[in-house]
Amino acid sequence: MSSSVELPVHDTTSADGRRLRGDASRRMVLERATHLASVDGLDGLTIGRLSAASGRGKSSIATLFQGKEGLQLATVAAAREIFTARIVERARTEPRGVRRLSALLRNALDYSCHRVFTGGCFFAATAADVDSKPGPVRDAVRTALTDWYGYLEAQARHAITAGELAEATDPELLAFELAALNEEANSRSLLLQDERPYVLAARAMRDRLHAAGAAPGLLTALDREAEGAADAEVSG
After folding, report:
1. How many degrees, rounded to 5, is the angle at CA 8 between CA 6 and CA 12?
2. Comparing C-alpha atoms, which of 77, 35, 78 is closest to residue 54?
3. Residue-range domains of the chain with CATH
4. pTM for this structure?
């Protein structure tokens, strides 16, 4: 006599549907979380605060992220994806060197000026919040920023090798100065509620690169704001 064993049938369609709904919920919650953290900092990003802002229950959010630190880390990762897409990926249409460096700077200024996140640059806001607090969250913010600074420096190094910048240019110092101009524009614009700091920063970036040997034709990504500053001075 033969016997057969019936294997359980799993409803993969239902499982896939639940997964898709869970992914959609996670994306929606993280969208709100990135905006909140850009204003209130990562310490101010609590499950209760996010629940009120997103309309999701506290228990649902806690389940999605397994606690506050998981929420903070997921928020940093989500913000980094947006930062990379808006600034880095868009600049990769330009050749390495001064053209890409100029595009990166233009994109970074626009990302802050256009308030992709409510509080301006997400990483400028959150770095100030966690810089003296060791742990995985600070590590995540630090990694995102060191990668950004390193990418700016890499473009400066390539520009020097390609002869687009003077051989005596210090790529680390140049990247530091350019990043500082971007961060100051973000900070001052938020405080003063004024877009002029972006105009000044673009001009300063252009002048700094030109002083380092960059040909004006390689700096067109920054020209628009430089021209805007000149027009503002004439009209004033």
Report:
1. 140
2. 35
3. 80-235 (1.10.357.10)
4. 0.84
